[in-house]
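Reopening this ticket.

The earlier resolution said the output was attached, but the attachment link was broken on my side. Pasting everything inline this time so it's all in one place.
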Amino acid sequence: MGPIEKGISPFDPGKPVHPELFIGRREEIARIDRAASEVTNGKSRVLFIRGDYGIGKSSLAKLTHAKYSNPDEEKRLFGIHVMLGGSKTLDDVSAKVIEETTRSIYSERSEIKQAVDFLAKYITKAELFGVSLDVEKIRDDAPAVKDGFLSFLRSVYNRVKASGYKGILLILDEINGIAANPDFAYFLKSLHDQNAVSDTPINLMVMLCGTKEKYGQITGNYEAVARIFDVIEVYRLGDSETKDFFVKAFGSAGKQVDDVAITLMVGWSNGFPVLMHMIGDEVFYADRDGRIDDDDTERGVAAAISAFGRRYLDEQVIKVIQSEDYWSILHKLLTNNVKNVIDRSFSKADISDGLTLDENKKLDNFLQRMKKLGVIASSGRKGDYVFTNSMVLAYLSIRSVTLKTSRGKGKP
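Inline output:
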């Protein structure tokens, strides 16, 4: 992966962060490194990178791939980063794995020509910067690979280990479509167990990236699969890490940033990588003189908030939080009653105490509408609720403040 170009926005909302700009996650990286050490010494590990949407799971996976693919890395692993978006069956999973394995091997063709020959039947056209693949041939072979998945990975490993690779890193990302399929849980457990009891086990690290909901679907379909997972939780970044990211990102593009502007961006993004990228990108293009100040930041934040709402929230949610009936309830809820972004919980009784008589009359309807839209859910005890997504909670917090400011002293 090449360096970041000067003068081009270093922010890329919706995509994993460039490894050069990766900040923080020391504890998570240390746990991954420990697993890599065990794998290169003959063990197999299955890691589950778990966290909310937009929290940076794919960026951590991308960094892992880049780190252990490096020829200078002592624990070098042959990385296959598979995006499973749209996959609903194991045949779909197998097809995506074949495709990404072929691309990964071709990118290292100067080192592992034998492996390129092994998968040459899937390549229809080889070019300087990549390959065109025979998708139909891959789909035809997917069922056989699915039934002999460990054998397929062993064939790959046997062809790359002479080039200095000490194991396979298989990253299964964007698992939303396949997580609910019971076959997927059995597949993961079987792959791990078969390798463990094999006469010729391969050094294998499997990394899955998903939310708590998707983790629950997989383990709910087959409880025993939970025993193979080493769960690594990914939370929002701290203020210091968020500041370092903005300083590093803008610096890589040759932009100077005022301290006040950095402070504003840190506060508004709340440590969520998706918000950090959306805010950074909008602020980058709001600047006209090469130096980012608070005016640039305010314009960029306003644009980023609107873009986030359009991209991630249902139109009905936006109507609810902007309505004359509910905006003050939401503002008081988020200002006084939600414990924190990670905990996300609140109590109806606590909200009620801070509302006017008219607002209390509308509270039940507000809660039911937010629940129906999937923004909140019952937490298990009567009258207690939890926001279903911490990034959406952060967005709603920002939106309630901007609505409060734009409407003056309590006037919609």
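Reporter confirms the inline version is readable. Residues 1-5 have pLDDT under 50 and may be disordered. The longest strand covers residues 204-210.
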